[in-house]
Predict the structure.
Amino acid sequence: MENGRWSLRVICFAFFFVITSSSAEFLIQQVTEYNSSYNLNANLGEVTRELRSERPSSKIVTIGNFSVVMERFEPYESSVFEASGYKWRLILYVTGNKDDGGNNHVSLYVRIEDTDSLPTGWEVMVDLKLFVFNARRHKYLTVTDEAVKRYNQGNREWGFGQLIPLLTFRNPNQGFIVQNTVSFGAEIFIIRPVGQQERVSFVSNPPDNVFTWRILRFSSLEDKIYYSSEFLVGDRFWRLGFNPKGEGEGRPHAIPIFLYAQGFRPNAVETSTWGAVNLRLRHQLGSNPKRASSAAWYPIQPGHREGVSNIILRKDLQDGYLVKDSIVFEAEMVRVSVTNIVPV
């Protein structure tokens, strides 16, 4: 009786193992077949796989009558091709590179060639993508990771030992082998580290940062915008402007004042410019001025303005701000940005 129960347990376990193995294979197939983007993380770190329509830009190798070589263990080395100014070969292991953990996988690499002409201590940094064509979907399985490949004398070959599982690759329902033909590819982008950087600095209380604008014959001014002369602070020219009849919510009962960004000094790096300003309407009899402040990024294109539409009500001008039919505005640039191109 006990022997009978033990035999039954063995049979059940074996049946469960078969079902589980079949389910695992089916799951891999489903992931490949129904998802346009998937990630098989078996010992591959941050390797990602996704399908895309565009052909690889550097190299495509197509093998017909693939069944002749599909069980071979030695690598296939492609012809030399040029990409990004260097010469390369595609190295394919159709049954996996066992020395690189490629058991039960297809392995694919790119090797740099003709390195004798490169200078001593050469290094080429590459953003590498490798491809397997899926004829069923007319798309390319793209395999990549986040690591920059550093080609040098000690590391002339980079790629993926586990490009795609053989279980998936050889499954006729998946579409990687169609009419006994397969295609692989590579995309090589050289990373050339930039030698310069754009550095933005903020200068507080820069030199010559106070500008005074006296406006004469105030009572005769028309309903339009009047502008001051330009003044240079930091890398940029600025000017003040106002309409004596008012603007926006302050019209016609209040006096506005605005700071305008203009052009750049010669040889300046033309970028958006930070401008923080204290705007004042001076009290000409010695009392406290009317004040307003603003701070903003001013775009490269001249003419952008920041300010207020009500620095003082017109009825209050007579209280020491309008003297001998003149008013005095001041702009104090308390902080500006300066941009330079410097070595990294």
Summary: The chain has a mean pLDDT of 89. Residues 143 and 249 are 59 Å apart (CA to CA). The longest helix spans residues 2-34. The two ends are 81 Å apart (CA to CA).
